[in-house]
Amino acid sequence: MEKIPNSLEGPYICRQEPILRKDGSFAIEEITESPRSGSHVRDIIWRSSDDKEVSFNKFLPGQKYRFVKMPPGPYEYAALFKDKVITYGDLALPMALLSLLHEIGHAHIYETAQEKKYQLASSAYEEYINDLNNRQLTEEDIKKRGENPKDYVYVTEFDPKGKEGKEFVEEPDNQFFQMLVPRKLAEDFGQTHAQNERDAWAYALKTLRKLKQEGLDLEPGLKLEDFLNKIYSYLETYEKYHKRRGVKEKYFTKNKKFKRIELI
Ligand SMILES: [Zn+2]
Fold first, then answer.
1. In angstroms, rounded to a whole number, what is the distance separating the alpha carbons of residues 169 and 171?
2. What is the full per-residue pLDDT of the chain (264 aa) written as tens digits?
3. How far is the CA of 204 from the centre of ligand 1 (A)?
4. C-beta of residue 259 within 8 angstroms of C-beta of residue 229
């Protein structure tokens, strides 16, 4: 194991916790503990049954990022940019390493103009729907302002005060309401969000393919078709979420360009 440089924060304890995967490989959490900063996952290492290794740390866009394990639930995998944290779930499960690469892909996108576009579009949309005056707007009001109601769409939104953080989960007690939103705001939000998700999956698939070409097969039990089916089912979840925002274009799933990525 690589030696950790001396620091004022020491002494460190470093340990490896191997998680056995179904295919006989291991996903190893490398955990450091120090009196000041506590325990954290310093690296996630994949080790094949014939002892080849891949460190996931090297894929991170900067050393400031760290990994945090989450309990089972709908929000296991995420890239939290402010905290520079990549969260993950049970690494023994199929697709887990691809999901981890997907979140790392998000961290890379975060440094780009693409993310800026998405952030601008999503905050413009959020700002609009959270303005209570906009929620009262009728087609008559739009006409009176000299605008065309056709440039607006009815969106179904939920009250963020009711169920914060549950926006992707269609729960029966969510407080839904309808309102008119400029079509362009909803479209830009859906389109930039789709681009972000697809780019993060493309990063994950490309990395997987590159490793495979080097003789490192992270998911030997899964075929390209399995990956694509799973990825498209994730993308469809987002698509559903934007559909109730009047986004008719299938930005998330229409373009099947992932099919051209061959994992041979
Ligand atoms: Zn994502």
1. 6
2. 445 555 555 567 889 999 999 889 999 999 988 887 788 898 999 999 899 999 999 999 987 898 999 998 878 999 998 899 999 999 999 899 999 999 999 999 998 888 999 999 999 999 999 898 999 999 999 999 999 999 999 998 876 554 444 444 555 566 778 899 999 999 999 999 999 999 999 999 999 999 999 999 998 888 888 888 889 898 998 898 888 888 888 888 887 777 666 543
3. 11
4. no
Q: How far is the CA of 258 from the centre of ligand 1 (A)?
A: 15
Give the distance (Å) from ligand 1 centre to CA of residue 108.
12
In this prediction the pTM is 0.85
Report the distance separating Cα 23 and Cα 92, nearest Å: 9
Dihedral sign (CA 53, 73, 116, 199): positive
What is the distance in A from the centroid of ligand 1 to the CA of 185? Answer: 21
Residue type at 16 in one-letter notation: Q
Q: Which amino acid is it at 81?
A: F
What's the 1 CA to ligand 1 centre distance in angstroms?
A: 32
Residue 91 CA to ligand 1 centre (angstroms): 17
Instruction: Tell me which amino acid residue 164 is.
Output: E
Residue the block writes with tokens 């080849």 = 52
Task: Outline where DSSP puts E strands in the chain.
Answer: 13-20, 26-34, 38-47, 53-55, 66-69, 78-80, 85-88, 152-158, 176-182
How many angstroms does the Cα of residue 227 sit away from the middle of ligand 1?
Answer: 14
